[in-house]
C-alpha cells in the first residue's frame, strides 16, 4: 500500500493519515521545495484551477484561508446617505451597496486608520443619485437603481494617477423605486481584508480537493465495460474498442458508485500531496493575482514567526 495514497473502499477510506513529518526520510528542505510543482489547468477572467503537487495539507489549507480572508481589496465602507425615500431601510440599503465589488487595485492604496481623513492615498469616492419619474405618456423611467449608476468622484490627482474606477459589474440591482422616490448618497471605498468583513473578500469561493487516482484492476470488456461507464454520473469512464478506459479521472467526486456492488474491477484512491485548487473571484482582482498575493502573505507570516523564534533563541535564559 502506497503511503502517499488514500484508498476508497466500499465501506470506508483507508490509509488516510499522514504519519511522517515532511522532513523525515533523509530529505532536506531544499529537496522538498525542489519537488513542489504548480500547473495552471484552466484560467478564465474570474476562474482559475491550479494543480499543486508536493505540499502538505496544512500549507494548502493556509493558502485557502488566506485567499478567503487576508488578501486585501477595495470595498465601500462609509456612506453619506443624503436622501432615501425608497421602501428599503437606510441600513439595509447601505449594506447592499457595501457588497458591490469594486474594480480597483488595492495595491495602489494604503490602509485607512480609524482617525485618518479620506484622501487620494486611502480612498475612492463614488456618488449615487437616482430618481424615478413618470413621464407624460405614462411610462416610468429610473425605476431600477443599478451598480452602473455609481459615478466615480476622483480626489485630486487620482484621475491622472489611476485612470478610472468603477464597479466590477454594472447590472447589479441596488433598489427598485416608484415614481417620485429618490436615492442620493456619497460612497467611500477603503482598503480592507475579508477577516474584517466578507465584502473585502476577493473570492466568491476558494477550495481544494485531493487529486483522484483511478485504475482498472483488470481488463473490463463487453457488457461489463458498458455497465461501468453508465454507473458513473460524472463520465469518468468510457468504452473504446469494446474495453473500459479511464477517460476523465479528474471528474471523480468519490461517489463510489463504480465499486458499490463490486470492488474487484476498479481501484479508487486520492493522492495525498496533489491538490486541485479552484478559485472563483468577485472580479475585484484576477484569480492569478489573488493566488500570488496569498503566497506572498504566507511567506511573510513564515518570516515573521521565524524572526520571533530566532529572538527567543537569542534571549538569555534565567
UniProtKB/TrEMBL annotation:
Q: Does the keyword Repeat apply?
A: no
Which SMART domains does the protein's record reference? RPOLD (SM00662)
Q: Which GO terms describe its biological process?
A: DNA-templated transcription
Query: What Gene Ontology molecular function terms does this protein carry?
Result: DNA-directed RNA polymerase activity; protein dimerization activity
What GO CC annotations are associated with the protein? Answer: RNA polymerase I complex; RNA polymerase III complex
**InterPro entries in the cross-refs:** DNA-dir_RNA_pol_insert, DNA-dir_RNA_pol_RpoA/D/Rpb3, RBP11-like, RNAP_Rpo3/Rpb3/RPAC1, RNAPI/III_AC40, RNApol_insert_sf, Rpo3/RPB3_RNA_Pol_subunit
- Residue stretches spanning the membrane: none
Q: What is this protein called?
A: DNA-directed RNA polymerase RpoA/D/Rpb3-type domain-containing protein
CDD domains per the record?
RNAP_I_II_AC40
Kindly state which keywords UniProt assigns to this record, in alphabetical order.
DNA-directed RNA polymerase, Transcription
> Which species is this record about?
Blepharisma stoltei
Q: What are the DNA-directed RNA polymerase RpoA/D/Rpb3-type domain coordinates in residue numbering?
A: 47-308
Q: Which family does it belong to?
A: Belongs to the archaeal Rpo3/eukaryotic RPB3 RNA polymerase subunit family.
The record ties this protein, via Pfam families, to: RNA_pol_A_bac (PF01000), RNA_pol_L (PF01193)
